């Protein structure tokens, strides 16, 4: 089976980034809901720490027998990430790994992986653009929800550089939190976006919302 070693890193890269520290073994659904990105980094770390082993995956305490190395880093789960832009936190994390163990330097981090829950975290806590972080060679494998801000032509011409990364399903922290008997709300239009009106499609969405608002008055 695939053997994974989970690093024990200082809390400045994990718990201290959270608005409210959590216990990995006692984390509840309510705690998970309060974390940005549905607590993806924390949830994945919790899964690995509590995994009892299977035919396909084993968590090993011996890094010398590991195939892959997981680096806990809760940057996406904090509302403080924009304040970390000039903190060089990712650089500090990698420097810590290099000082305390020889495994990162063996392949330049190519057999290491991190979870990345929000797409703008790479510009804050990681201090790099999406493209620069994804194309870092050598560098770690990223578990992420989506590739953003990438032009199709760029992806096609550099596809082999992105092939190492893994796009994973976005977790649903609200599973089981809403009563099954919750009444249905009839809405003529359901839409949402994050950020400002930066595209023609969003302009169309805003226009449609304004029209519905006037109709309802």
Plain-language structure description:
By secondary structure, the protein is of the alpha/beta class. It contains 9 helices and 6 strands, in the order βααββααβααβααβα. A 6-stranded parallel β-sheet has the order 2-1-3-4-5-6. The N and C termini lie far apart (62 Å).
* Count of individual helical segments: 9
Kindly, what is the distance between the CA atoms of the first and last residues, rounded to a whole number of angstroms? 62 Å
Tell me the helix content.
25-40%
Indicate the mean pLDDT: 76
Low-confidence stretches: none
Number of β-strand runs: 6
Portion in strands = 5-15%
Q: Compute the gyration radius: what is it?
A: 20 Å
Give the overall shape, derived from the CA principal axes: globular
Order of helices and strands: EHHEEHHEHHEHHEH
Give a short account of the largest sheet.
6 strands, parallel
In the sheet with the most strands, the strands line up as 2-1-3-4-5-6
What structural category do the secondary elements indicate? Answer: alpha/beta
């Amino acid at each position: 089976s695939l053997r994974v070693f989970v690093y024990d890193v200082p809390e400045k890269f994990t718990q201290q980034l959270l608005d409210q520290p959590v216990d990995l073994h006692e984390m509840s659904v309510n705690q998970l809901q309060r974390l940005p990105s549905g607590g993806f980094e924390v949830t994945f770390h919790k899964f690995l720490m509590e995994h009892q082993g299977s035919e396909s995956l084993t968590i090993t305490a011996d890094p010398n027998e590991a195939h892959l190395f997981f680096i806990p880093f809760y940057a996406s789960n904090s509302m403080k990430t924009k304040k970390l832009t000039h903190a060089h936190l990712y650089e500090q994390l990698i420097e810590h790994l290099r000082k305390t163990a020889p495994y990162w330097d063996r392949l330049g981090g190519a057999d290491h992986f991190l979870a990345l829950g929000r797409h703008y975290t790479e510009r804050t806590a990681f201090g790099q653009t999406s493209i620069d972080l994804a194309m870092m060679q050598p560098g770690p494998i990223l578990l992420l929800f989506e590739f953003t801000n990438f032009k199709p032509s760029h992806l096609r011409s550099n596809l082999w550089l992105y092939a190492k990364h893994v796009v994973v399903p976005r977790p649903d922290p609200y599973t089981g939190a809403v009563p099954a008997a919750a009444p249905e709300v009839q809405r003529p239009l359901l839409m949402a976006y994050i950020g400002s009106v930066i595209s023609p499609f969003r302009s169309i969405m805003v226009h449609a919302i304004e029209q519905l608002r006037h109709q309802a008055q």
